[in-house]
Amino acid sequence: MIWTRLLALIVKEMLAAFRDPKARMALVMPPLIQFFLFAFAATLEVSNVPVGVLNQDWGAQSEQLISRFERASAFSEVRRYGSEAEARAAIDRQDVMVVIQIGQDFSRKLAGNERPTVQLLLDGRKSNSAQILSNYLNTIIAQYSAAYRMGGAALQPESEIVDRSWYNPNRGYRESMVPVLIATLPMTMVLMIVGMSVARERELGTFEQLLVSPLQPLEIVVGKAVPGLIVGFAQCTIITLIVIFGFGISLTGSALVLFTGLAIFLVSIIGIALFISSLVSNQQQAMMGIMVTMMPLMMLSGFSSPVQNMPDWLQPIAQINPLTHIVVVIRGVFLRDMAFGAVAERLWPMAAIAVVTISAAAWMFRRKIQ
Amino acid sequence: MDALVSTEGLAKSFAPNATPAIQSLTTKIKAGQVTGLVGPDGAGKTTLMRLIAALLQPSEGRIDVQGRDTRTEGAAIHDEIGYMPQRFGLYEDLSVMENLTLYADLRGVVGDERTATFEKLLAFTDLARFTDRLAGALSGGMKQKLGLACAMLKSPKLLLLDEPSVGVDPISRRDLWKMVYSLIDQGVGVVWSTAYLDEAENCAEVIVLNQGRVLFQGDPKDMTAKMAGRVFKLHGAGAERRALLARTLTSDDVIDGVMQGEAIRVVIAEGAAAPTAQSIGAASVTIAPTPPRFEDAFVAMLGGQPKRTLAQATRQRSDGDGKAPVQAKALTRRFGSFTAADHISFEIARGEIFGLLGPNGAGKSTTFKMMCGLLRPTEGSALVDGLDLYKAPSAARARLGYMAQKFSLYGDLSVAQNLDFFAGAYGLSGARRREAVGRVIEAFDLKPFLNENSGGLPLGFKQRLALSCAIMHEPPVLFLDEPTSGVDPLTRREFWGFINAMVGRGVTIMVTTHFMDEAEYCDRVALIYRGKCIAVDTPEALQHAVKSKDIPEPTLEDAFIALVEQHDRAQQAAA
Asked: Which of B372, B395, B408 sits opposite A204 (nearest CB)?
């Protein structure tokens, strides 16, 4: 009896989500588009950009330095400018983000064992990328002058810091960010599907129709949760496959651990969505609720900036965010073979969130009819 | 008299191949009288209103408002008419005064003129006491009055009212008509559109529309007069009356028949012989001619009630244990300090149609919700088939069928998918589900629509589907929330035909309504007013109770208003 009722509800939810071709497209297309946007467009690496050079020095040393720029893979081209005005105009037109100005005494000072100066003119409108470029250039310049002195004056280099990024040796943005999309994209989708579905039924009047049927509040909650779980899980799987085979980011740890984590994560997100939908009375309010929840979930997850860098009072809040935990699990499983014990430490908080939110939603639905 | 509006060969289509919303309409609307635009939902009333208001352009023909062509002089027309759309654009979060001020600003009514107009309109609509109240907190009737005030700001010569009486209780409805009549005396022309056919009789002239075609134009009395001598009331059929109605309708001579309390009202075909006790095969029945109503003429014009014999949707129920299948025991519901329902008690016998009647906000919906298990009573209990809805909710709910006021099935799912879902939600599986779904498909002729989205069905079939979904699990008790308000008379008859058939098989029905025609189908009605049940009786007994010199032949609406006023007087006397 109870299984018949539940099955009917689940089948109905799936039909409602997939019967309409437009609704079907809405489920499949946006996550895919977002996925490729995130993966390709929103990158923190700077590559393939042209740089400008204003060389006022006539010595061989400056040419050696410029040839180092030309060899650097990050720059597509080194454009030379004859005058300061020309360089200024180039930045103004956004032809280049940076112009390296080599002073006329560069070679002389270098040869005379003095400190030569190189000026970087950066486009402050693109502060982030310019910052990264400036770092690259500084490194190249420092390397050049070090090499020059080694060859020329045979000075002993001072002690040097060498950093190695374990698990992500190339420190690739893609390797650390793209796998996280396995959690964030299905999360937005599931929040929408589940959060809106109850509100939509309320608006249509079908929710009352459900409440007068023998379906119990908890059954309604489960009936709404399962289709969300199925859709979310399918999306997780597809995106995981794309990440592994499309982007060639290999899964270092176990797939079983990954998907166990994802399942618990999705249930906790469904719990949050159901709780939102139990509070609202129409789709507009549901939309607001979802938006208001989604941003903090994203920002406080360590998805883009590490939780450790947040102020102390925010860190406990990040702990009750399921996304925080799954981000750790995903990065752990993809980049290194995270031990199961460490994974489990991340699983139980998500499970706890799921239990709390789902019970709260069921309680709210029950209360609504009292 | 000068025509305010004249149309010639007017037609409007919204898509090249669609059936036109209005077809070849030539008419004149005069000043100083009410012109009724009468027809069921979807007849084209709103389209015609919007054409007159120069908000739509005609596809063919022309339409002049006060001698101005709506195609070219729309802006001038907007300035001279008042238009109150169906859901007038009141801002629910603004107070009555703020709404008025806003519309006065929009219409350029300022300065002394504004002060004078506000004073006049607030007195006229009796809203002066409520100027600080939020529009959203007004009752249906008061909202319409405020809408009317906003439409009247510029003292228009022509006032277009689109279904002003929807969602308005009988008392407020009477007030609205009084207000409109006093406008008429000032020479304003009023166009009043309505789906309630009884309102046609209040109009000096009517334009009767059905599916975009004009069925009749002129004095409604002329239309009704055509039916003289063709309408009869059958009294004394007792418990057999539903079966008798069904039997009577099979005769070719009878084009229409409805229940009216304990009587049956039949309309015979033109030229047919008057029915006799022999011809209808019920010796104990007395037959008396009765004055025709506008609705009789309307149904006759549409060719009479559709005669389809449909299979039975439910099986015969045994008499049970003789206990009342629905019991309300001192149902009370408080919201804070406000008591929405105050110790309401009634019992509904097996095979009875019981109506909950009352103005909006009287506690009718609260009571109904408590009976459905949607709202927990503060005190008292609601029993369905002997089970307490709040002690054994799942089991009790399995024994009731519920049909909501508006169509509330899944419009994006097909008919078959809706049926499957509701069968499953009521725990039917396997062979029992197939059997239940098959039975309603056959009974309600749903086969041709099985794979269509239910949202796109014609209104009549939507109702059939909603009823199917409510009764697949064969509940002994069926609850209907305003099942046929705004529905055209033919669909309404068909629907009540189904209900009568089920009642004949022992199903118990509870229905809420503020629509008097619906109340007439009931065996007994409970009148809910200010949270109290002020009368429970048969419609005839209620009508009889208020019979007086002033109203020798009270309608149910008269009875309703008289009882409410009586209650108010008693309350005042006590206080």
From this structure: B408
Answer for the pair B512, B368: CB distance below 8 angstroms, yes or no: yes
Q: Tell me which residue of A70, A50, A53, A62 sits closest to A133, measured CA to CA.
A: A50
Q: Contact at 8 Å (CB) between B7 and B61?
A: yes
CA distance A10 to A12: 5
- Within an 8 Å CB–CB cutoff, is residue B37 touching chain A? no
A-interface mutation test, from B333, B378, B397, most A Cβ less than 10 A away:
B397
Q: Which residue of A has its CA nearest to B433?
A: A4
Contact A356, A268 (CB under 8 A): no
Beta bridge partners of B81: B158
Query: What residues of B are in contact with residue A211 (Cβ under 8 Å)?
Result: 373-374
CA B541 from centroid of its chain's CA atoms: 23
The closest CB to that of B412, out of A20, A208, A212, belongs to A20
Nearest alpha carbon to residue A45 among A139, A176, A167, A142: A176
B435-464 b/e (C-beta count within 10 Å ≥ 16 → b): ebbebbbebbebeebeeebbeebeebbbbb
Tell me: the pLDDT tens digits for B423-447?
999 989 889 999 999 999 988 888 9
Nearest CB partner across the interface for B397, out of A15, A23, A213: A213
Domain boundaries, chain B: 3-220, 226-301, 409-472
Q: Which fold would CATH assign to domain B226-301? A: Alpha-Beta Plaits (3.30.70)
Answer whether B371 touches A (CB < 8 Å). no
Q: How far B374 CA lies from chain A's nearest CA (Å)?
A: 5
Sheet holding B34-38, edge to edge: B81-84, B158-162, B189-194, B34-38, B205-210, B213-218
Helix axes B459-471, B430-443, angle to 10 degrees: 150
Please report, rounded to a whole number, the percentage of residues in chain B having pLDDT higher than 90: 17
Any CB–CB contact under 8 A between B394 and chain A? yes
Query: Chain B contacts of A205, Cβ < 8 Å?
Result: 404-408
Contact B427 A1 (CB under 8 A): yes
Q: Which residue in B371, B426, B451 has the most chain A C-beta atoms within 10 A of its own C-beta, making it the best mutation to test that interface?
A: B426
Query: Which residue among B412, B417, B427 places its CB closest to the CB of A214?
Result: B427
Domains of chain A with CATH codes: 2-42+172-368 (no CATH), 49-151 (3.40.1710.10)
The topology under which CATH files domain B3-220 is Rossmann fold (3.40.50)
Q: What is the pLDDT of residue A268?
A: 95
Could B408 and A214 be called an inter-chain contact, meaning their C-beta atoms sit closer than 8 Å?
no
Task: Look at B422 and A213 and tell me if their CB atoms are within 8 Å.
Answer: yes
Top-confidence residue, B240 or A52: A52
Euclidean distance between CA atoms A291 and A275, whole angstroms: 14
Asked if the Cβ–Cβ distance from A16 to B397 is below 8 Å, we say no
Respond yes or no on whether ipTM tops 0.85: no
Do the domains spanning B3-220 and B226-301 agree at the CATH topology level? no
Tell me the three state secondary structure of residue B332: strand
**pLDDT score at A155:** 45
List, run by run, the mean pLDDT of 10-residue segments along chain A (370 residues). 86 84 79 79 68 85 84 82 87 86 84 81 78 80 79 52 60 75 90 87 86 86 91 91 87 90 94 91 89 89 78 86 92 85 90 93 76
